[in-house]
Amino acid sequence: MKYFDHAATTPPYDEVTRTIAEVMSRHYGNPSSLHRLGEESSKLLRKAREVCAQAMDVKPGEIVFTSGATESNNMAIKGATLQYAGRGKHLITTATEHPSVFECCKQLEQLGWEVTYLPVNSEGQVTERQVEEALRKDTVLVSVMHVNNETGAVQPVTAIGGMLKEKHPRVLFHVDGVQGFGKVPLQLNNSGIDLYSLSAHKIKGPKGIGLLYVREGVSLFPLLAGGGQEEGRRSGTENIPYIVGFSKAVRLAKEGERERQARLKQLKAELVRGIKAIQELTLNSVPEGAPHIVHFSYPGMKAEALLHMLEEEGFLVSTQSACSSKKAEPSRALLAMGKGAEAAASGIRISLGEEHTETDISDLLKALDKCVRRLQNLKGERKS
Amino acid sequence: MTSCDMLLLRFGEITVKGKNRSRFEKAALSHVKSLLRPYPAAKVIHEFGRIYVELNGEPAENIIDALKNVFGVTSISPVKVVPSELEAIVAGAIEFVSAICPGPEATTFKVSARRVWKPFAHGSQEMNKLVGGPVLKASPHLKVDVHHPELELHVEIRERRTYLYSKVIPAAGGFPLGTNGKAMLLLSGGIDSPVAGWSAMRRGLEIECVHFHSYPFTSKMAEEKVIDLAKVLSRYSGQIKLHLIPFTEIQTVLAGTGQDNLIITLMRRAMLRIASMLAERNGALALVTGDSLGQVASQTLASMNVIGRVTELPLLRPLVMSDKEEIIGQAKRIGTYDLSILPYEDCCTLFVPKSPSTNPNLHIVERIEASLAGLTGMLEAAVEGTETLVIKPHEPVQRKAGDEAEIKEDWF
After folding, report:
1. Looking at this predicted complex, what is its ipTM?
2. Domain of life of the organism in this record (chain A) (predicted)?
3. Which residue range(s) make up the domain with A207?
């Protein structure tokens, strides 16, 4: 079985699972306890925070550990809008955000906030110009994802951050960095980005843990009240084994970033070439997009059919994003890019990981071609 | 800074030190070399009054950040090296200036050429024109101002090669490490004592840290904090020794005298006596403290007098005339502030009386101490019970084996 669904989640590093097991059995102390076991846990927490901060080139105090990117995105958007409600009740985001941003905005609309959803172009991108034109006096926050989880489109977050920092420094800027980290280099420090979400399980770490970078000087209204952990920003006993494992994954992701990016780019180019050769398929992802996501449609064919047929051949891929794929509706991101409902409902996403080889790609392409041939025959039979 | 391929480090005060100069420069040189260990391609060249670091592709900014900490070095300039030929110098100057000052904001500018190698065909004055003309042409946003230029391009023509530089980045200054002998630093967990230690090191003192703990009245976290502070200081010296002194018993006995308002005075005196014994054992000739005049009860002039009399060693107080704000600023610059403000109690904040004496009486203090028969023995026992750690900036600290679950570096 070959796994090609890394944008949904990744197989964890062996050394990460080993770390988690060892820390979990030895260091069960609560970091808030004053005794030695608690102190050890607190030391692990501090060290993990330092490791993450160093890898991300930010300060340790700017990192808040969360239960994952969904929480990080909720914390960023709701925390900022509640904290800075005095500045206004308007947010700006894009039409292709992850549900944990999109649905957050929908909730805020129910509570009286106004949200501008910027349309994307046919390649899935917005421009800093669009953001600037949508800004109002009462805009509190702009939230734009770095890399789209379905199509791999890369948003110009550095340009948007630069524009906001220069001309509208009071407007906060949140970036959902989940799909980009470790694959598309992005500098946080001094970039105009105030809030940045990360998830461990997309970078070969464990599920159930993530972080939010909160630039020094920005306060968020805490969504979880309680024992005051994470400097009062996120209460709840810290998940030490996962946090330590996460910090290792963050470090490894950052250390190998350039190399991984170059390698994935090569594999992607290979895969794209093969898909283009199959005339029934239309490519939705663009060459400038993230190096690990390839998205295409099979117009006229239910995406699920192709997915299951590929699965029989031993290849696991995805329809839409994992977070939306159980819904029957066509993809919001693809519709926003101007793809027809048919293409939007028949999308397949292949997402790559660093462990893939050239052979894996050529095997996958062979299987894909075989499946399309078979499906074409079935289609033909049905028509007659 | 991508345009530079060498760093130029200048010595300050030490060049006035006559015969001792070569010893001082050697000390600074070995400090530079130790800080360059993580950058194996970088090559160090020592010349009269200067050190050159050839980068050979190593990152300039990181190395400058590290070398800014070398005591005895007053400033650092990133240098572009070109062959000593007119065409190469002009081309290099154009490239260098456009890299460090791309415009478009108007900037005033001047060339300062120096022909060190006299056989070179053009004189210094002539070179100012020969270089300045083409640079101005290539960067139209520059405007000549020979008196107060914002950008001064230095062109230093030597026999083999010519150095182009502009930026002069201030460095730590002072005297090279250890060239003025050794002292013991009383290191609490507070803001002042690490700054005092740094100031002493900058003046060429080698420092060994002394810390008093009153476990279980103080927590292990307080001790960790002090180890971390020593680790920050070790960045400036390559390594540093930390002596951890068990102070619980002494503190308990002193508290038992019932002399509430004198307890701080008595404790400080006991600490200085222990530190003096350690100084003698380790060949140190002075004690360094973070005292700042009038800051707390034990730092009034009267208190300093009564406390200081307990030792015959010179008591160096680098911060004695500094304001708190200045000390905090310095602590932030050297990187100890964020650690210092962590809220763990140290033994000086324990048993703090409601009204500590700001004007203790020496005779009374001495009489109380004389009444404590076992005190000298306890001080000696404390010295014997010292745990000494050698702390290096990038290595985990080795402690006596405890029964605590260990933390493995390879988990991260």
Report:
1. 0.78
2. Bacteria
3. 14-255
